[in-house]
Amino acid sequence: MEKKDIDWGNIGFGYMVADYRYVSYYKDGKWDDGAIVSDPNITLNECAGVFQYAQTVFEGLKAYTTEDGHIVCFRPDLNASRMVDSAERLVMPPFPEDRFLDAVKQVVKANEAWVPPFGSGATLYIRPYMMGINPVIGVKPADEYMFRILVTPVGPYFKGGAKPITIKVSDYDRAAPRGTGDIKAGLNYAMSLRPIVKAHEEGFAENMYLDSGSRTKVEETGGANFIFITKDGTLVTPKSDSILPSITRRSIMVVAEKYLGMKVEHREVYFDELKDFAECGLCGTAAVISPVGKINDHGKEICFPAGMEEMGPYTKKLYDTLTGIQMGTIEAPEGWIYTID
Ligand code: PLP
Ligand code: COI
For residue 221, how far is its CA from the centre of ligand 1 (angstroms)? Predict the structure, then answer.
């Protein structure tokens, strides 16, 4: 398969129009068979539920080329099941999990020319999403839905690649209120647009959101969960029912314990504790593991001992092991790797 002529090592986290996308429609209480199509545009009625009441959810995962030339995805079953949770919270008919996996396989295979080569530093980002498409003017869920998957090759999420970033403590909430912070609904990301623009204007790469009730506990950033390393090498990661249950974070907890023999704590993390940690990082599909060197709390800086030049030693070990598993150079736990081709 001839790959597209792209300078894989120099692409950022952006959108490119790939050749194919997957689409399936829900009408009269059932999903149709779905198909691979080539048109990247969507035409909808002006009153579609997605436009009026933001009835839309999404997922994010990646396809990787392994060292021996296979194309694989990392734990896509967990994306399928999280999308069911997101859909149910917005009163949308879940897209069946087995169909989700099949659709991912179809769309990645169709776009094989867009899957970046092994070792290029790029991967294929896969974005499943779903929306209400028939007209609704009273506040109620739609009756008809569209499930789609687009793919686009991507490089590092943060400018500067693996260099540590500086983030700020936000005064905003990340998500819409009333217990929606743990789902991947577009409306939560809409709520984070103003804070992210503000953070970027001030020179910060991301926001650290605190719990909206007491503003004493660390939640997550706009697009990633946190990991922290204590001075004696324990992995600590915030537990909260108002953050997205990151698949990367859940995987890192296993990697830390089972591959690296680290102690792992999944618990509430108080902002006051941060000054005592040795390393800090952001984890997610897009972020992979991105080191945080500094946190700015309204002008007061928390500087992690690992510094601003490179990842701290534990973060690096976690990064190397996780990406090794994803790219097939380190043996994965049973069921983590889904072979596309
Ligand atoms: N938190 C938020 C708000 C996100 O958007 C993401 C990205 O999906 C994550 C965390 C990381 O989750 P995952 O590791 O499943 O990609
Ligand atoms: C992801 O990591 O897949 C995300 O969704 C984060 C961001 C790009 C929204």
Answer: 9
